[in-house]
Amino acid sequence: MVGMIDTRGIIRHYLATLAFRLGRALDGAPESFGDFDVGSGVRTPLQIMRHIRGLMYFANQILTAEEMPEVAELLWPEEALRFTEAIEKVDKAMQESEPPSSERMLRALQGPLADAMTHIGQLATMRRMAGAPLEKIHYSEERIEIGDLTL
Fold it and tell me: How far is Cα 47 from Cα 50, in angstroms, rounded to an integer?
């Protein structure tokens, strides 16, 4: 059982949850999945991943007031690596001795971090549509880790 967690701990756990769920959505995906096209102008998985990475940059900007880097167009295999780097940067901001204000943390949660979770769900749905569905698990029972935080 987990004791009381402060706002910083909750945001860090949410970051770990994002990383875990994205890992699930991408693990075992066919090589061609990045270009999967469902039609009707819907973003491809590659475009969604690029957007999610941009959301991590935006979350970091909210938390640290650092300039947001340009979201370069990368190929499918590189996007997951860059996402990992981007989310680790956000987590690092959460670990500073002088953390962001609660207002900034909540703005990041309700904006880019919540949006990222929505898009990760889209990727999971697209996996099923592409004929490569995810195995069912009980997310609430999974061990989630980021940095030194384990829940």
Answer: 5
Check if the beta carbon of residue 140 is closer than 8 Å to that of residue 21.
Answer: no
Rounded Cα distance, 11 and 58, in Å = 15
- The CATH architecture of the domain made up of 7-150 is Up-down Bundle (1.20)
pLDDT (tens digit per residue) in 80-131: 889 989 999 999 999 888 889 999 999 999 999 999 999 999 999 999 999 9
Angle of CA points 40, 83, 132, to nearest 5°: 50
Distance in angstroms (rounded) separating the CA atoms of residues 9 and 1: 15
Residue with tokens 């204000």: 101
